[in-house]
What we know:
Elements: E1 2-8, E2 11-19, E3 32-38, H1 59-72, E4 84-92, H2 100-112, E5 123-129, E6 136-138, H3 142-146, E7 151-156, E8 161-171, H4 173-201, H5 215-224, H6 228-232, H7 237-255, H8 259-264, H9 266-295, E9 310-314, E10 322-328, E11 331-340, E12 346-348, E13 356-358, E14 360-365, H10 382-396, E15 408-417, H11 422-436, E16 446-454, E17 461-465, H12 469-474, E18 477-483, E19 488-495, H13 502-523, E20 540-545, H14 551-555, H15 560-568, E21 575-579, E22 584-589, H16 592-606, E23 614-623, E24 626-632, E25 635-640, E26 661-669, E27 675-678, H17 680-686, E28 694-703, E29 706-712, E30 715-720, E31 741-749, E32 753-756, H18 758-768
Parallel strand pairs: 3-4, 14-15, 25-27, 30-32
Antiparallel strand pairs: 1-2, 2-4, 5-6, 5-7, 7-8, 8-19, 9-10, 10-11, 11-15, 12-13, 16-17, 16-18, 18-19, 20-22, 21-22, 23-24, 23-26, 24-25, 26-27, 28-29, 28-31, 29-30, 31-32
Helix pairs in contact: 1-2, 1-10, 4-13, 5-9, 10-11
Amino acid sequence: xxxxxxRDGDTVVYSFASxxxxxxxxxxxxxxxxxxxxxxxxxxxxxxxxMRREGRPSDREVLVSRLIDRPIRPMFAKGYYxxxxxxxxxxxxxxxxxSDWMGICAxxxxxxxxxxxxxxxxxxxxxxxxxxxxxxxxxxSTAQLENSKTDMIVAGTADAVLMIEGACDNLTEDQVIExxxxxxxxxRQLCEAMDDLKQKVGKEKRLPELRLVPEKxxxxxxxxxxxxxxxxxxxxxxxxxxxVDEVKxxxxxxxxxxxxxxxxxxxxxxERILYLRMAWKQVVSSCMRRIITDLDLRPxxxxxxxxxxxxxxxSILPTAHGSVLFTRGETQTLSIATLGGNxxxxxxxxxxxxxxxxxxxxxxxxxxxxxxxxxxxxxxxRREIGHGFLAERAxxxxxxxSDQFSYVIRVESNILxxxxxxxxxxxxxxxxxxxxxxxxxKDVVAxxxxxxxxxxxxxxxxxxxxxMGMEDALGDMDxxxxxxxxGITALQMDIKVEGITKEIMSDALEQARVGRLHVLxxxxxxxxxxxxxxxxxVPKVEAFEVPLSSVGEIxxxxxxxxxxxxxxxxxxxxxxxxxxxxxxxxxSSKDTERIERARNMILSKAARPEVGTRYPGMxxxxxxxxxxxxxxxxKEGWLHISEAELTRTEKMEDxxxxxxxxxxxxxxxxxxxxxxLSRKNILMGELGLEVGKRFTADVTKVLPFGANLQxxxxxxxxxxxxxxxxxxxxxxxxxxxxxxxxxxxxxEMGKKIRVSRKPILEEKTAAAQ
Length: 769
């Protein structure tokens, strides 16, 4: 019914909107389904799984689907309950222009030009902060994102913000307002462009008969709901739900269809029950909102600014690396931190990374018993993935750098009880669990959820600190803010109505700051004082880098080399070694000696011979014209017979024997990988031969262009004719004879020892003058 292609650079997103012709018979909500897919063909790659095709949506695809859903859902006409599906596909990705904000715009545009009744154009943008200038950048490139720790997605209409989600680098409340205002300007421009597109190609909107509660039924329910005010104000969640249900049962018994009507006119009876449910929800919502705005009294008895009681129980699990039971009111999480080496990192496959990994990740679990229900237990749902990612981003800002703390950190948030704001409880519990495990966090982080009750007609509003479940379901805003005492590290805002002004947002952020500081103070019970050692059951981890070219040799064919190192260090029960494709090696064990041994073995394998470097080698094999010497583990070099001794050697066995330890020097690295060795320089050093040393040497042989001179027993040097005198010598035979003695100085040590008379003659000339 609507299709749009959106392109930014060479990133291309296709979005499609479809809607059912009629609403479901028993539907009293907006059934919107959003799916976002990233095709690996967009970057010229196939999926890394066995089937070589995209499977279940990745966490990132789920998160972007939620980003698309949340700002669009509130903009459908009230009472429009036809099922709507939005599908977005990334078909081309250039690695420069991110596709997630494009998914919001393309999906909204496909709805805007279709016949589906979307009230207004909706658009989304990304905002980051330049770390040098401090200025905010709208829709930055991936390179700009990598250089900044602030990454926010803002979505809304031309007139109002509907959604914010992102991570911040300890931004102040004023900076967040500035970033959102800048984003709103860009959103307005995008919405205007969508309106222009609608004028050109848009279809006429079909507004079917909306499913709205009749005014008479609404009035009847209000009159029949005697005792609802008192029921809504019962303090305990379960008792409140029971009290409200008792009132509901009386209302439904009085206004619902009779048994005879159910049997004679079942369709009409089901329709009446449907409208009765809808009316009941509106009446309960109106009741709660009236009590809050008129009396500043919330369902659990708190004022609008009161935070529920907080308790912290650290080290609650004896064998976990770090654990804490964090309770706030009727919301409770058992948070657990687990530390490990790089082999425990979370693997990620995305358009940007074929084999990516995360060294810190938080996983959130929301079992049905936490709200007293029976339900499916299995892989995490969209809500669990979204809540976990928000808490992860809030804590990521305080995770120590890998060169300061080389462990991989996994945090679990197990929700045991929930009455609102469990994601922010996960932030608090996750932070305390890591501190309990000895992780040297940069700061302590807490989170708090804010709510809003807004009367659009009067403009009167109440901001609620520490949102609970009923207020979330029936209120107008869910605004989660996490951060330290100095600034905001993550936030998420969802608005159900238009009309949130800058003043309201500013008030909400300030009230959230005060609430966050209160939570941080209460958390101090679980914050260790001073430096904390890692628990005894945490394996020691050492991470180091090796040359990328040596990774293959360290691992070996079929992993035989790395397996041999593991076995030599005690086996995989005692030590774990992970070698990354980028050359980062992680070794973990409870025994530091095993770690050091493995480290030395790996570094030895990674070492590369260098010309001029000397090595203590082992004679592996002797041949008639030389010998193979092992200079590094698994690396041998060739020592020719002419390089084994200073004097001529007839047999290699006269110089060295197999199994003997000898010191050798690398003289040449061939292109084919062969290493050539020599012992001459080492032997000459033992005799005191070095550059600058002078000798009175005997001429042993004269050639036209130079002469051989015996410097000491068995050691000769070469005197070239250019070095024999300060004046030019045409033929060496006219200068010296065999047996004559000459004063010379060593000027070069190499395969040949080169000597010269010039330094000596120049000194004599200078002395005479």
